[in-house]
Amino acid sequence: MSGAAGTSRAERLRSRLEAAAAELTLVRVRRRIEGAEVLEGFVVGVGRTWLLLVPLTPLIHLDGWVAVRLDDVVRVKVRGDRDGFVARALRARGEWPPRGIDLDLDDDAALLRDAGRAAPLVTVHTERDDPGVCSIGEVTAVEDGAVAMRTIDPDARWESHLDDWELGEVTRVDLLGDYEGALALVADTRDVDPGGGPQERALVVNGTVGVGKTSTARAVGELLRAAGTEGVPHAVVDVDQLREVWPPPPGDRFAERVALANLAAVSATYRAAGAQRLVLAGVVETLDERRRLEDALGVPVVLVRLRADPARLQERLRSRHADDVDGGASLAWHLERCGELHAVLESAAVDDAVVDVDGLDRLAVARAVLTATGWPTPPRPRS
Questions:
Q1: What is the pTM for the complete model shown?
Q2: DSSP secondary structure string for all residues of 4-18
Q3: Distance CA 185, CA 168 (A)
Q4: How far apart are the C-alpha atoms of 242 and 236, rounded to whole Å?
Q5: Segment holding 265, helix H or strand E
Q6: Which residues partner with 163 through β-bridges?
Q7: In the predicted model, what is the mean pLDDT of the chain?
Q8: Could you say which architecture CATH assigns to the domain 2-92?
Q9: Alpha-carbon span 223 to 232, nearest angstrom
Q10: ∠368-375-301 over CA atoms, to 5°?
Q11: What is the CATH topology of the domain spanning 201-373?
Q12: Which residue has the higher pLDDT, 5 or 21?
């Protein structure tokens, strides 16, 4: 009887969480771990093993993502609906709706790998040992049933050693929150990892044609120059310029092989010159394309896709190609490709984050992209 009752209770909890995710209702989540923080926020993912929340701060802001073990959840209480005060305030602040992030919620190892790929700093909690202690750092490896991290101390100084925890000990994982972002902003980006190499990463601004990938990548570069006291060494690359060969090679409709070969050479040159962040504007449609891109770059890649209303994209394309001399052939191709690629990217699930750009200026889009990566960003100018 107790087993049947337990199963029924777990099913009711899961059903309530899934309903909260579908309806975007604010919830308060309590867990069975003594002393563990009571979490308040929005459910954006329910897997076999993990629950994903967008936490709400007391100042009514959304703050990154938090994953907790589903088996630890003992109570879910609805605190407000999508038309209540919190939702209306978040809408007014441009923080609505809360969105998910591409994390595997079915497997411990996959979750930690995805978190390490999505964010430069990840917070790991082992609350059964001590609910008041957590560790923040860069995920360096997930293997043999454990996660290894290079941790950062509260003064934003990198530890000189690696720490590791058994996956089963991890009860909560936080990423891309304000605190992790503040540490990443202050931390010395010129520091080296335990293997002696620079902490190099790459960002790909992904999206369909006309969505603003190139202008956003350039704006991200502007923000990186203004970050911290000395800026962040970086380079901006428009991948489309690396594939401009006509006619394209046989069997390579978009000259991808040409672009990857050029990208490998260009990125190596930029890295040798000191660039620690590579910002790319390009299109990545599949996981295989993503892996080939990472192989060419030789550094971890974060994909952030820009998304806009298709009707507005078509207006933008008509304006952009108004003076073309090909009788409208280029415009027709881009209009068709825009819709085709939008549908492909919506279903591909290849991105780490998605930023809706409608109503945002280019610097606001760039800030949203940097927030999604967890890279350092400069403070907003005073109005």
A1: 0.55
A2: HHHHHHHHHHHHHHH
A3: 31
A4: 12
A5: helix 256-272
A6: 149
A7: 85
A8: Roll (2.30)
A9: 9
A10: 95
A11: Rossmann fold (3.40.50)
A12: 21
